[in-house]
Amino acid sequence: MNSERLKEFRQAAYELLVKAKDATFELMDAVMTTPNAACLAEFSLNPLFHRQWPSVYEALQDCRPERKKLMLLYLQQLQEEAPSTEHVLVAIDHTAWARPDAKTLQDRTHEYHKGVIIGQGYSTIAWIPEAEGSWALPLLHERISSWSSPIDISENNQSLCVVKLLDVNVIILN
After folding, report:
1. Chain CA centroid to CA 46, Å
2. pLDDT (mean) for 166-172
3. Which of 46, 71, 87, 119 has the greatest CB tally within 10 Å of its CB?
4. Dihedral pair phi/psi, residue 163, rounded to 5°
5. Is the whole model's pTM more than 0.70, yes or no?
6. pLDDT of residue 86
7. Can you give the three-state secondary structure of 135-156, one letter per residue?
8. Can you list the alpha helix ranges (DSSP code H) found in 34-94?
């Protein structure tokens, strides 16, 4: 990706952040360029973050990005960057996070993870960049509420990908 395309991509991503755009964008740059951070406040020490440490927390609290539009922007970039001879491989996964002791946590559900647990389920859609290797780039990560199911969320996210990418391979992992 050349520098002009990178600027265009960053501007398009910036526009989808909705609130607290500047602080959130600086935080994203700090996260991507800080090698090791033991806590969130350490990102405020990065020279790309021009604010004081409370702004790290405020950016996370105030930012309400248009997540699905961001995912579509990512998919567009992947499609443009991928060689025409390669398929863009996308995987969808449901993960259960146990939270049995969090009695006041809203919307806990019964999830299956090596047996039934009390907690919350999450759906992740990720780009698999290599035929071999063990890493993936998350494009969208969202909690599955008690009034929806992992299959409903997966089908919705899969539909978004298929609409954006005409030639997409989707694997549902569990």
Report:
1. 22
2. 48
3. 71
4. -65, -40
5. no
6. 67
7. CCEEEEEEEECCCCCHHHHHHH
8. 54-62, 67-81
